[in-house]
């Protein structure tokens, strides 16, 4: 996928998730969190006031540590398409 199209598709997927109002499973949210952070080159520590939430977020980032920026965007888009837009396919 061309880089410009990838960025456009990624931003569109992020906006879709931001506007989504139904609850999502925690494992999907954590994967989205990790891919989003990597895609945006944001490697700061999780900022929750709840230590357990920080631990889960840190674990999600550790699990995705070998994913590069473009892969993170692709994985984010694929996860949104598979689990949120078309969950029964």
TrEMBL record:
It comes from the Bacteria. It holds the Pfam family ACBP. Residues 8-80 form the ACB domain. InterPro entries: Acyl-CoA-binding_protein, Acyl-CoA-binding_sf, FERM/acyl-CoA-bd_prot_sf. This is Acyl-CoA-binding protein. The lineage of its organism: Bacteria, Pseudomonadati, Bacteroidota, Flavobacteriia, Flavobacteriales.
């Amino acid at each position: 996928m061309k880089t410009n199209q990838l960025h456009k598709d990624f931003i569109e997927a992020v906006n879709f998730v931001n506007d989504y109002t139904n609850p999502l499973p925690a494992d999907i949210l954590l994967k989205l969190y990790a891919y989003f952070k990597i895609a945006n080159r944001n490697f700061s520590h999780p900022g929750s006031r709840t230590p357990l939430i920080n631990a889960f977020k840190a674990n999600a980032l550790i699990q995705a540590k070998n994913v590069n920026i473009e892969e993170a965007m692709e994985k984010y888009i694929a996860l949104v398409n598979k689990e949120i837009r078309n969950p029964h396919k």
